[in-house]
Every structure is written in structure tokens, then in C-alpha cells.
Amino acid sequence: MSLAQRVLLTWVFTLVFLIMLVLKLDGKVQWNWFLIFLPVWVFDGILILMLAIKMAGRCKPGYDPRNGSPDLRLRAWYLAAMLLKLGFCLTLCTKLEKLADIKLTFVCIPLWTMLLGALVELGLNIFPERREA
């Protein structure tokens, strides 16, 4: 998938989600919150599938793991971040639909974990480890 296709796909899913969210918040539609977040989950599912395919490509015979070890670590972090985002969206929808009486603090735990991991990743990129020769 080319860069232009990925950007267009991102914009389309974001636009559909925002339109559905505004309609729900204005009271024009009485849809379920899980339906409102459906474009987000479809987009995240596509991203998770693409990441899984790229990570599975490393299992080919003849692949030298020493050449791309940081890349695999980064892709594993992306996969974990996407799963945490999905967990946050699911718990948020559960709270908004009043399916379970969950405190907002517990709803935000996956989001805070993802943001903390992003800060660690940022710190690792800003302050790379020093290698002494």
C-alpha cells in the first residue's frame, strides 16, 4: 500500500468517525456507541493486520535477525500500542453504554499505559544508548 493510499484511508476513516460522533453528540441519531467507534476499529484492525504481516515476514528462511533487531522491537511496540488503544476504546464504549459500572480512572488505564510507553520510546529516540568501541 503506497503512502498516498494510507493517507487517504486515514482521512476517510477519521472523517466518517467524526461525522458519526457529531451526529451522536447532537442527538440526531440514537446509535450504539460501539457503532460510532466502528470506523476506528476497522482502521485499527487494518493496521494490526499490516503489522502482523510485516512481523511474520521475519520468519522467512534465510532471514538474519541481527540486521533488523531494533526494527522488530519498534514494530512490537506499535502492535502493543494499537492493542492498548483498542482496549481503551472498548472500555470507553462499555462505560458510555452503561454496560458496566466502571470508574473513569479504570477506563483510562490502557490510554495512560500507551502514553507512558510513548514517552519511553521518545526518550530512547532522543537519548540513544552510547556504544563504546
Structural account:
- The protein is mainly α and 133 residues long.
- Helix content is 73%, strand content 0%.
- The chain has six helices and no strands.
- The protein has helices at residues 3-26, 33-36, 38-56, 69-96, 104-107, 109-126.
- The longest helix has 28 residues, at 69-96.
**What's the pLDDT, averaged over the residues?**
87
What structural class do helix, strand and pairing data support? Answer: mainly alpha
Helix content: over 70%
> Please, what is the oligomeric state?
single chain
- H/E element order: HHHHHH
The biggest beta sheet is recorded as: none
Gap from first CA to last CA: 40 Å
Structural Rg: 19 Å
Number of H/I helices: 6
Sum up the overall morphology in one term.
Answer: globular
Q: How many β strands by DSSP? A: 0
Low-confidence stretches: none
Percent in strands: under 5%
What would you say about this model in short?
With 133 residues, the protein is mainly alpha-helical. The chain is 73% helix and 0% strand. The model has no long low-confidence stretch (mean pLDDT 87).
Any descriptors?
133 residues, mainly alpha
Question: Which helices and strands appear, and what pairs or packs with what?
Answer:
Blueprint lengths: L2 H24 L6 H4 L1 H19 L12 H28 L7 H4 L1 H18 L7
Helix pairs in contact: 1-3, 3-4, 4-6
